[in-house]
Amino acid sequence: MNNPFRRRSFITHSAACSLATWLPSAFAQSGRTIRLLALEPAAQSDMVARALQDGLAAALDTRVIVENYGGAGGRIAAQMTLRSEPDGYTLLVGGANNMVMSPLLSRQAGYEPLRDFVAIAPLATVPFALAASKRLGVSDLAGLISVARSAKQSLSGGSAGLGGSAHIALEVLFQQLSLPLLHVPFRGTASATQEVLAGRLDLVVTDLPRLLPLARDGQLRVVGVTGSHRSALAPEIPTLAEQGAPGFRVEPWYALFCRSEVAQSRIETIASAINRVTAEPAFLRHLKRIGFEPWSDSVESVYGRMKQDHDRVLALLASGLLHRE
User: Fold this and answer.
1) pLDDT tens, 174-185?
2) What's domain 13-125+252-319's superfamily in CATH?
3) Interval 111-139: pLDDT, tens
4) Residue by residue, what is the 3-state secondary structure of the chain?
5) Ranges for all domains in the chain classified under CATH 3.40.190.10
6) Helix (H, G, I), strand (E, B), or coil: what is residue 236?
7) What is the rounded radius of gyration, in angstroms, for the C-alpha atoms of the chain?
8) What's this model's pTM, rounded to 2 decimal places?
9) Which of 16, 113, 158, 222 counts the highest number of beta carbons within 10 A?
């Protein structure tokens, strides 16, 4: 059986490098601007786009702007990309929310990621962590499990919305631990975090950089990071997998996408430019400054992440923990 996540085209290193010697000038000669589409300002995808913006402009010798289209779990940004001409001048900084989850959870998405988009290159991952209200009195997963099992009612966990990475992390973790959970969706991570600080919410999953200052001030407790490895931002904080949730990993990722109808030669040119930009010290410093991690891998790894997330969401739909709108 054909694997729907198998990459539909293959870019060799030599081909990309040879194309890069002459094709970027086509961008410069056109006088047109490349549009990087992301979610709302200060969202994760927006921060990745702005980290990429200057380097990509220099690599392709043309103007690059970031355009923001927030809302609907990233669907609006994806839909705007599909409304553009398939000429490589409109690119999407996409992640699991709009490239996997939204199309599975909403009948209104209007697109199929594997049919309508091509992944150009991986960009970055975001350290995520589970944090608890200090009133729970827990500092690790064992303590959380003990409190959850003795509690008279389900612990409450907040996220930035139904079907997002934080919601998936909470549901998968509590399902794996056979613990009940009351999920409380908010309009944004900031609101959920404030509820934890106020003691009205037990748990929140969000960016580790957002949580660390609060934890260091004693306002909440970081239970563990949700990725496959400890974060360089706080290597003393173990992963949840290390603490008794073997194999657990939920890690927001971002990659560059374009419409599937864009010419292969143009995709290869952009991929070559991206590979050079993401290896530059300026890009790496920018990611470190905002607390993100570089994702240095082949483009096939993007499809691998998409498949993993796709299978996880399907399992949650089958279990009834998620529902399609």
Assistant:
1) 999 999 999 998
2) Bordetella uptake gene, domain 1 (3.40.190.150)
3) 999 999 999 999 999 999 999 999 999 99
4) CCCCCCCCCCCCHHHHHHHHCCCHHHHHHHCCCEEEEECCCCCHHHHHHHHHHHHHHHHHCCCEEEEECCCHHHHHHHHHHHHCCCCCCEEEEEEHHHHHHHHHHCCCCCCCHHHHEEEEEEEEECCEEEEEEHHHCCCCHHHHHHHHHHCCCCEEEEECCCCCHHHHHHHHHHHHCCCCEEEEECCCHHHHHHHHHCCCCCEEEEEHHHHHHHHHCCCEEEEEECCCCCCCCCCCCCECCCCCCCCCCCCCEEEEEEECCCCHHHHHHHHHHHHHHCCCHHHHHHHHHHCCEECCCCCHHHHHHHHHHHHHHHHHHHHCCCCCC
5) 128-225
6) coil
7) 20
8) 0.84
9) 158
Tokens, residue 50: 């702005």
User: Which residue ranges does the chain devote to CATH 3.40.190.150?
Assistant: 13-125+252-319
Q: Which residues pair with 305 in a beta bridge?
A: none
